[in-house]
Amino acid sequence: MDATIKLFAPEINLRTMRVKAHRQRNQFFRPGECQRLVLEGFRAADGAALSSRQIADQLATKKGLGADMTVQMQKNALAVLHRLEKVGMVAPAGRDGQAQTWKLV
């Protein structure tokens, strides 16, 4: 590969090129499934704010996982919520004990 790049563009310094990062697949959800399930939870809540803990409980229930997986589901839910916050779909709505609450924008 390096030889081919040098053949067509000899001025390129190959040491400055980054290696493609490979994303590790989530073992619980197919691509896009977690986000879809989080948004379904908000639709079912009819505009009410949901805590990340409530969303995690919904995810664990929908996937048929036990209560011991709630912490992992909460991490997955928070990752989705932060991505949705960046694109302006959800916003923080306060706190419910130790958990952050979120609402659709």
- Tell me how many strands there are: 3
* Strands side by side in the biggest sheet: 1-3-2
Enumerate the spans where pLDDT stays under 50 for 5 or more consecutive residues. none
User: Alpha-carbon distance between the termini?
Assistant: 47 Å
Count of helices?
4
- Percent in helix: 40-55%
- Main sheet makeup: 3 strands, antiparallel
SSE string, helix = H, strand = E? HHEHHEE
| Morphology call | elongated
Structural class: alpha+beta
Strand content: 5-15%
Average of the residue pLDDT scores: 88
Q: Radius of gyration, rounded?
A: 20 Å
Named CATH topology: Arc Repressor Mutant, subunit A
Q: What is the CATH superfamily? A: Winged helix-like DNA-binding domain superfamily/Winged helix DNA-binding domain
Instruction: Supply the CATH class.
Output: Mainly Alpha
CATH architecture: Orthogonal Bundle
Number of domains: 1
What does this structure look like?
With 105 residues, the protein is α+β, with helices and mostly antiparallel strands. It has a single domain, classed as Winged helix-like DNA-binding domain superfamily/Winged helix DNA-binding domain (Arc Repressor Mutant, subunit A), CATH 1.10.10.10. Helix content is 46%, strand content 14%. Strands 1-3-2 form a 3-stranded antiparallel sheet. Strand 2 and strand 3 form a beta hairpin. Helix 2 packs across helix 3 and helix 3 packs across helix 4.
Task: Map the helices and strands.
Elements: H1 2-8, H2 33-44, E1 50-51, H3 52-63, H4 70-86, E2 90-96, E3 99-104
Antiparallel strand pairs: 1-3, 2-3
